[in-house]
Amino acid sequence: MPKSTRNRSAGRVRRGRGATSTVETIIRPSQSLPVIIALCLWRWRWEITILTALVVVYYHLTTPDGWEFAPVPALLVMAAPVPVVLAVRPVRRFTRNRIWCVITRHRIRACLTEMRTLNYSGNLPFIIGCFSTKTGEAVYLWMRPGLSAEDLDNKSETIAAACWARTALIGRSERNASLIRVDIDRRDPLAKTNITSPLLEDTDGMPEASVNDDALLALIHQEDDASSDPDTSDRPAKTGNAAEGRSKTSKTKTSAAVNDNQTVILSHSGEDVSDYV
């Protein structure tokens, strides 16, 4: 074989090896048609229910068997409950929570698909349900065989970004490792709450009787009175020689004596130190 022919054939083989090494194969399970229909009905159950209800109401409003409204008045009648829902706070909150639950469930599934959180058969974790909480939503996942909570480690920020939320917390059940809970936090209930406390204000606007009856102030005044009136029942200092005074006063650090209505403070050696205190 000529030398030039061998070089061209070798180059073609090397290029072929490099091209086939970047192919990624994802196997999808072969599901039957009833299973696909059941999964679609479960996934889109809220949308299907609302759409069916709107069609039934519109049919009864426009047909001769019903109210026989024109199309425009029928649409106005169907839109009449919307202001009521927006005005009543409990109904508005319930509607908002349910809408966010439906959106969160779809966003979680899309995020798991993009992160390739599936087993070797190509199955995603099964979304059991989504429930509203005080801070957002709680999504429960059932991990298929081949998946566990370790597949969602360090994925909380990705899930929070996919659900348009503040943060996301991932935790597993203590009884069953297949049950995973994802807490989606959208709002902080204490962000707009003003905490009022009487300790943060002064007592200028309070009545004088309330200030005098305060237990803490009474205790402080009692301690001040006790410190300002020392006990005068201590033994008076004896006048004797210095040695005897030292021996008798060395047992205590200080002693006080009343002389001409003045307090005399003596040191260990019996010296008057009232002027230094």
Descriptive key words:
single chain, 277 residues, alpha+beta, Threonyl-tRNA Synthetase, Chain A, domain 2, four-stranded antiparallel beta sheet, two-stranded antiparallel sheet, elongated
Write up this protein.
This protein has 10 helices and 6 strands, in the order H-H-H-H-H-H-E-E-H-E-E-H-H-H-E-E. With 277 residues, the chain is of the alpha+beta class. Among the domains are: 31-79, no CATH class; 97-196, Threonyl-tRNA Synthetase, Chain A, domain 2 (2-Layer Sandwich), CATH 3.30.980.40. The strands form 2 sheets. Strands 1-2-4-3 form a 4-stranded antiparallel sheet, with helices on one face. The protein has a two-stranded antiparallel ribbon with strand order 5-6. Helix 3 (45-62) packs across helix 4. The longest helix has 26 residues, at 89-114. The termini are far apart. Residues 4-20 and 237-260 have low confidence and may be disordered.
CATH topology of the domain at 97-196: Threonyl-tRNA Synthetase, Chain A, domain 2
Percent range of helical residues = 40-55%
Q: Summarize the main sheet.
A: 4 strands, antiparallel
User: What is the CATH architecture term of the domain at 97-196?
Assistant: 2-Layer Sandwich
Strand proportion = 5-15%
**Can you list the strand order of the major beta sheet?**
1-2-4-3
CATH class of the domain at 97-196: Alpha Beta
Note the overall shape.
elongated
Low-confidence stretches: 4-20, 237-260
